[in-house]
Design a protein that fits this description.
The protein has 253 residues and is mainly beta. The protein has one domain: Methylamine Dehydrogenase, Chain H (7 Propeller). It is built from one helix and 20 strands. The strands form seven sheets. It has a four-stranded antiparallel sheet with strand order 1-2-3-6, with no helix packed on it. A four-stranded antiparallel sheet has the order 7-8-11-14. Strands 15-16-19-20 form a four-stranded antiparallel sheet, with no helix packed on it. β12 and β13 form a beta hairpin. The C terminus is likely disordered.
Length: 253
């Protein structure tokens, strides 16, 4: 009726930051800072991934703001499971050890990068540091989906500063990548493509003018083998092509 606000009963449930694998909830963890959904085990039910970028890890072995994420798998006909699974760089076989302020799980994006009909998950690590001067380049880990769920340790580790074949002097270039992630099938070939936001990146425009924090976007195209890292000096590989699109804008702070 006009002038009245309708009220309906909504079926819902809240999920919180819970202790998992000797990883107790702590102040400032920022559970659910990022979210992504996908069918990570191919059973037809969507699963929920929740990022915890400021998680300090396993009790007694804390690494400040190393980050983590959890997945709560969907059950056909029942909804999300009551138990969730924890993922972090502390896991054996991780392509890169956890470090302070990595913020693993800052951004999440799901898509079928290798075309096996099971969704995969891209996980950003914007605080990843690398090189002699320990510059903060940022990285992205890809956990591929399997019939039993996401692989415990990522099998792909992408550092966009090098993935795009761009190795500028003095560490300038693609920096703090992974502030945001997105997926889409941009070439309509049936494979999800991955977009990596690098809003704090330096660019040369024109070639002899350095623009600080102008921003950049990396697009990695999916293929049968998944989204693999090309060589540092090439923007193409048999399994994945990297394209850099520059956007002049100020980063959000």
């Amino acid at each position: 009726m006009p002038g009245y606000l309708g009220v309906s009963t909504v079926r819902g449930r809240a999920y919180g930051n819970e202790p998992l694998f000797f990883t107790p909830p702590q102040e400032g963890d920022h559970f659910a800072f990022s979210l992504a959904t996908g069918d990570f085990n191919g059973d037809g039910a969507e699963d929920l991934a929740s990022g915890i970028p400021d998680d300090d890890g396993v009790a007694g072995f804390e690494v400040i703001n190393a980050g983590a994420f959890v997945v709560r798998y969907g059950v056909p006909g029942a909804g999300l499971a009551s138990q969730s699974t924890l993922f972090s760089q502390f896991t054996s076989g991780s392509p890169d050890p956890q470090r302070e302020d990595d913020q693993f799980g800052y951004a999440l994006a799901a898509g079928d990068f290798n075309g096996d009909q099971i969704d995969d998950l891209a996980v950003s690590v914007p605080g990843h540091r690398e090189g002699f001067f320990d510059y903060t380049y940022g990285a992205v880990a890809i956990h591929y989906g399997t019939p039993s769920g996401l692989e415990p340790a990522a099998s792909e580790w992408l550092v966009p500063h090098f993935t795009a074949g761009m190795v500028p002097a003095a560490g300038r270039g693609l920096r703090i990548c992974g502030q945001d992630l997105a997926t889409g099938d941009f070439d309509h070939n049936g494979y999800a493509d991955l977009v990596i936001g690098c809003p704090f990146s330096y660019i040369y425009y024109p070639p002899d003018s350095l623009l600080e924090e102008a921003g950049a976007v990396i697009v990695l195209l999916g293929a049968p083998g998944g989204c693999r890292r090309p060589t540092r000096t090439s923007s193409r590989s048999l399994r994945c092509r990297a394209r850099r699109e520059i956007r002049k804008s100020r980063p959000r702070t």
